Amino acid sequence: MAAILETREIEYAYADGTRALSDVSLTIEDGEKIALVGPNGAGKSTLMLMLNGILRPSKGEVLFRNKRLDYDSRSLREVRRRVGMVFQNSDDQLFAPSVYQDVAFGPVNLGFSQEKVKRYVGYALQYVGLLGYEFRPPHHLSGGEKKRAAIAGILAMEPEVMILDEPTSNLDPATSEEIMEMLDELNMGGKTLIISTHDVDLAYRWADEVVLMKDGGVLRRGSGEEVFSDLELIREARLKPPMVVDLYHELVSRRLVEENKPPKSILELCDLLEKKDELQQRKMGTIYICNADDLVPVKAQELVRKVDADYTGAMGTRARRG
Amino acid sequence: MHDLLDDWAQCNALRGTSAPLKLFLGLGAIIICISSLTPAAPVFVAISMSLIILILAKIPIRIYFRLLLLPLSFALLSSLVVALMHGSGNMLYAVEPFGLEIGIREDGAALALLLIARTFGGMCSLFFIALTTPMIEIFAVLKALRIPESTIELSMMIYRYIFVFLDQAMMIHSAQIMRLGDGSARSAIRSFSMLASVLFLRSWEQGERLIVAMDARCYDGRLDLMQEKKGARAIEIAATGAYLALTLAISLMSNKPGII
């Protein structure tokens, strides 16, 4: 895998002298799912604003695809097109009077023809599930819909990297889950994703790589299991270990499970608790999968009746919406 | 929640009809109202526009009347002043406090009546536009009328952020009330001044964030002013034309001397 974004020893201080970042070197590879985790004021947002050239480091350099950011207007446009950013507060981002106009903002400014703009906007709105919302003003949207619209505005520019500052803050759990699932799909489609959060459970579950930050520096970078198993480090960063990891350590210390790799999810933890031979003895069930795209509801009900299922559900954001 | 005009503009029974036609109807009626020399045409406009708003656009009657209350009180007050200050002719009613004669003369009364009728007719027409046509569509019409783009872009941003600041103002206001910021007249005034200054600072910050948000999406001086293509049906055009012609006729006929 090739590095898509890289920072080399960047530093940043605000006008009043407060140091927001010091000596941050980070390499982000193509197609990764990265979570920046840290307490308030750790420098997560500042680092994110560096990555698409909104802020310029006072020292060090930022590289996009091994090319140094030059901060002239042409290279800035280029990097901002490739690296899209979704702000924490959707109201900061949605400034046009209608959803369509907001999503079209990027493509229009990239100089696309009207017909192409229309196509891109349609595609982006369909992806986030907001078709039919074109002419609504943003203040008539719910929090989750605003977030979707903000993501569509970035998607319409076809970025390679998407940066999302606290994507699930102020959203209800079900909506958060949907948004994160959508991000997963985007990642599967080849986009590199960087999110910031202080929801450790979310970061642990979702990210391939976790970057733990504190006081403007990177404390540790690694897989979720690595970073969150170091309890000392987590405490130092004023965070708590993810619930699953916490429970796992407690179970290990009481010798209820053997020490191994921390489980990624509740399911994995349950599997650890069940003894191996028990697992093997149990009769396996059958999973039926079908493509929801060419399935009408009546037909689906018929199928479900035929196979006598214990549990039915839809996978993927598109299927759920259908 | 608060009832905003904007909410009704988004969902009323006339939402689907052509915006230029609605604007033409509303503005035409306003112009006939204010140029009419007798109350007849404005009264006709006020009644017919109210019926259109209530029956065709299906705006709840309670909300519509609450909306009318504000301009109505204003119109009544100002025409009272006009009635007292103005005119010649027979004295209809007079009082003499402290030996000072204050009274209403025939002319003044007629003028006041005309003023109320005009304001009322105009307000009803304006509410017709405001309650049936969303701002986005009005922007599109403005563009078709060749209003300079920077003006339209600016008003689009203003329109968008009015609601952000309205939200913030309401939240600050509740935060103040929760801590008894409106306990006395004195503290109410102080609270209000604080609200105003905080809102000013926030709008300043919001402006800076807006620039960042636009830059982050490659702002190049271009904003899409899309137009929703919604043609007017022939019958709608005919009805609008007939209505305006009728109003104009009433206005012209009643302008003849002899009828008030």
Q: Give the tally of β-strands of chain A.
A: 10
Termini gap of chain A: 35 Å
**Beta-strand fraction estimate of chain B:** under 5%
Shape of chain A: flat
Helical content of chain B (DSSP H or I, runs of 4+): over 70%
Strand order of the largest sheet of chain B: 1-2
Largest sheet of chain B: 2 strands, antiparallel
Category by helix and strand content of chain B: mainly alpha
Q: In what order do the strands lie side by side in the largest sheet of chain A?
A: 6-7-8-3-9-10
Molecular structure report:
The complex is a heterodimer of chains A (322) and B (260). Chain A has 15 helices and ten strands. By secondary structure, chain A is an alpha/beta fold. Chain A has helices at residues 44-51, 73-82, 90-93, 99-109, 114-128, 143-155, 173-188, 200-206, 224-229, 231-236, 243-253, 266-273, 276-281, 297-307, 317-321; strands at residues 3-13, 19-29, 33-37, 59-64, 67-68, 83-86, 161-165, 192-197, 209-214, 217-222. Chain A folds into three domains: 3-239, 3-Layer(aba) Sandwich (Rossmann fold), CATH 3.40.50; 245-281, no CATH class; 292-321, no CATH class. With 260 residues, chain B is mainly alpha-helical. In chain B, 71% of the residues lie in helices and 3% in strands. In chain B, strands 1-2 form a two-stranded antiparallel ribbon. In chain B, helix 2 runs antiparallel to helix 5 and helix 7 crosses helix 8 (185-216).
Please outline what is shown here:
The complex is a heterodimer of chains A (322) and B (260). Chain A contains 15 helices and ten strands.
